[in-house]
Amino acid sequence: MFNKILIANRGEIACRVIKTARKMGISTVAIYSDADKQALHVQMADEAVHIGPPPANQSYIVIDKVMEAIRSSGAQAVHPGYGFLSENASFAQALAAEGVAFVGPPVGAIEKMGDKITSKKIAQEAGVSTVPGYMGLIEDAEDAVKISNQVGYPVMIKASAGGGGKGMRIAWNDQEAREGFQSSKNEAANSFGDDRIFIEKFVTQPRHIEIQVLCDSHGNGIYLGERECSIQRRNQKVVEEAPSPFLDEATRKAMGEQSVALAKAVGYASAGTVEFIVDGDKNFYFLEMNTRLQVEHPVTELITGVDLVEQMIRVANGEPLSITQDDVTLTGWAIENRLYAEDPYRGFLPSIGRLSRYRPPAEVASGPLLVNDKWQGDAPQGETAVRNDTGVYEGGEISMYYDPMIAKLCTWAPTRGEAIEAMRTALDSFEVEGIGHNLPFLSAVMDHPIFIDGTMTTAFIEEQYPEGFQGVELPEADLRRIAASAAAMHRVAEIRRTRVSGRMDNHERKVGTEWVVSLQGQHFAMSIAADHEGSTVQFADGSSHRVASTWTPGDQLATLEVDGSPLVLKVGKVSGGFRLRSRGADLVVHVRTPRQAELAALMPEKVAPDTSKLLLCPMPGLIVKVDVEVGDEVQEGQALCTVEAMKMENILRAEKKGVVSKINANAGESLAVDDVIMEFE
Asked: What region, left, alpha or beta, does residue 235 occupy, with left being phi > 0 and alpha being psi -120 to 50 degrees?
């Protein structure tokens, strides 16, 4: 076995590989750019080597610099993680020439299957059903428009070397094809150093389901079930689960066997993923093969007990698989939510900054477990597991240079319903402050009826949130539980305030029992009767809730029981009450005496400033280009400028018809969030 492995990556996947290498007794070497000097993966590794400036195309994807790090560290093998150089055949060849093992598939398999165009041709030759499209290379934007019309709109414009949603655009007309081609080409060049583009038919109402395969260099190959990845945004997966709530055993077997046959046809050896789109009748079509470890691999590990990183390392060491297809059993259900540094209230645009607070829920081990290639039995019925794969820490900085994903929160349980409920609690318990993030949106998805029913497609986010995510409106039953909890918490805070020393003589502060709690536009009058076990909160209509909690003022997380059921609240202080967050809702909750509530009702509402005639920068980023000039009349939906952040190009469009009166920023300038880019008459 190898003594030392270099991880040619960063962030959570580098940390993930280090954990398994440590378990196997293998020393690890991290590489880092200037921006990652204090990163978690650098702290976790046994050694770390600096490789250049922050941009990935000057550090992490520069093969010569990574090879220098390998030589200086004496690493015997390299795990590439995902993204960056993970599917780069030239990198694998450079390692082979140096006598260093690549923890991934052979060069030939990468060349044949890592390239989206070549892999589709091979799949067609092997008799695999594929999506219609143009497999050749596209020369320019006009050529892209011509091909798109031949294939038929809508089309998917994709980077041949793409992955992780980078270099991908959906076009519904000629104009979107022109714009999408150029943006995809730019993103592909910046992210992968390869700007080749191809076009295929975009199949509407599909489900995205992928098969995990594992092969060795001795001709053995198995599949480890499927992952449902249909909930996507901008072609980037947000929620994954295993198994899929849609597949039956016969379809699973057919997809799995076809995936293994395809892998064997190209001499594949390592972990890999074969992706399919599946229609409502369970017809499946080959999409692509990712010749690397997938971001969402933890859900497969949780239901099978197989450590995929360990298996990749063993295969790279020349060992045969010790697991046969008959050994693979899918136990329970696992769900993964990707935590992104993106602001859901601003169209999910990237958010950067320092993590002033980062407290994931406690990790809990459970589920099937593979020890020395032998399963140690199933987890006890009713138990759940929580896993958080991350690459950040409290006080660390989220950089503008890299992918915005900062953690992968996973739960496992014996049933899908239990796994969803465990995920709801885990999301409510996840504390993140200092940046915009998508935790509220993830909570909303976990409560959405379509997700609960398992009937989602890849159009889920687009269809269910056509105007973007505007937050969550909780039903009255949930509001009453939160209102009762807020009153009980306010009473605890009031009691503490009565005990403050240095009070005026002959003045005693008394804690009342009558309160009015206001939240989400509703007002609940109530009275509280407290004892040593908790509080009974009586509403004006006669209903009541029993609240028990160990919360004390200053705690930013409250774990309560309301009528015996758990309730987790993130707690912030506002004047006269709390900022409470739960199940995707962000609530300003005021707790007032009846007289205070009466007076508050007379106060005028503060009106937000009018920004309708301004184009504001929605995120910190770089202006790539400005598409209009002063005096231009613009139409609704017209492209105004392009902002690049976290390796993604974002086209900002006119919300309505208008005339440009002033342009405050030019191409090449870096802007902060809410900086004014241009003004309109």
From this structure: left
